[in-house]
Amino acid sequence: MPDQPTVPVPAPPDTAPPDTAPPDTAHLDRRARAGRAVRDLGHGLIGHQVDDALLDELAASLESLTARLAAGGVRSRQPSTFQSNSDDWGADPDQTEFTGFDDRPVSGRSSPLGLDPVIRRVGDEIHATVTLRSAHEGAPGRSHGGVVSALFDDVFGFVLSIERTPAFTGELTIRYAGPTPLHQPLTCRVRLASREGRKLFMTGELLTADESVCVRAKATFIAIDVAATPGWGDGV
Q1: DSSP string of 94-128?
Q2: Which of 95, 123, 127, 226 fits a disulfide with 91 by CB distance 3.0 to 4.6 angstroms?
Q3: 196 forms bridges with which residues in the sheet?
Q4: Annotated domain spans of the chain
Q5: pTM score, two decimals?
Q6: Is 98 helix (H, G, I), strand (E, B) or coil?
Q7: pLDDT tens-digit series, residues 36-48
Q8: Beta carbons within 8 Å of 34's beta carbon, 6+ residues apart
Q9: Under a CB-based contact definition with an 8 Å cutoff, are residues 71 and 143 in contact?
């Protein structure tokens, strides 16, 4: 079948007016449902054999929906969206689950790229339970290493909630101790190891259900002054 033209999607502008309206919970829940459906679609496409007719139907439907999405107004994430999980900052160690902003690429419930982790604070650590699926496969039967790296980068970020410190990733080191399996529960455990000025040094591991270590990771985060960060001072 000849290549079909892709649906043009305009890139968001460099700046967009701040979204100051209070969140509509029902609308956000609908976005989360749509995000989950897109994630499941990706795993279904990669993980199952289907006939050409279904593939053609799928492509046509998605191209039509993409064109309709592109006709909507441009969304621009504002710094204020990072307040969505601010109540978790410094939360009690016995709290059940952390939440991040919905569009967070790895753990956001509305993200089409998300991994659907369940993230909890356990003492001074963050534990994220996740099951990697078909679209995460790299070598046969194993997760792609880049997916694992993204998982760690995201989960390390939740340590900042414990420390009550806004910061950006400065360095991320991943050591693959063995294959990372698909379709079974894994636990990513991370914590702050030490702190030196603006630098926060973190360590973590990814473990299978039997506590075998698949991956070890280290990260350096750099604390920021929100008020002095361009475009952020008035937004958070």
Answers
A1: T-------TT-TTT-TT-TT----EEEEETTEEEE
A2: 95
A3: 199
A4: 81-228
A5: 0.84
A6: coil
A7: 999 999 999 999 9
A8: 110
A9: no
Give Cα 76 to chain centroid, integer Å. Answer: 17
Q: Where are the beta strands (DSSP E) in the chain?
A: 118-122, 125-131, 167-176, 185-196, 199-207, 213-223
Per the structure block, which two tokens stand in for 138? 């790299």
pLDDT tops 60 at residue 205? yes
Q: What is the pLDDT of residues 136-178, one digit of tens each?
A: 999 999 999 999 999 999 999 999 989 999 999 999 999 999 9
Using the Cα atoms of residue 46, residue 50, residue 52 and residue 55 in order, give the sign of their dihedral: negative
Classified as helix, coil or strand, 193 is: strand
CA-nearest of 151, 147, 9, 23 to 77 is 23
CB contact at 8 A, 143 and 181: yes
Nearest CA among 144, 148, 154, 149 for reference residue 186: 148
Write the DSSP assignment of 1-20 as a string of letters: -PPPPPPP-PPPPS------
Instruction: Identify residue 36 by its one-letter amino acid code.
Output: R
Q: Check pLDDT > 70 for residue 87.
A: no
Query: Can you tell me the mean pLDDT for 27-39?
Result: 96
Residues 205 and 3: their CA atoms lie apart, in Å, by 43
CATH hierarchy code of domain 81-228? 3.10.129.10
Assigned token pair, 128: 């994220």
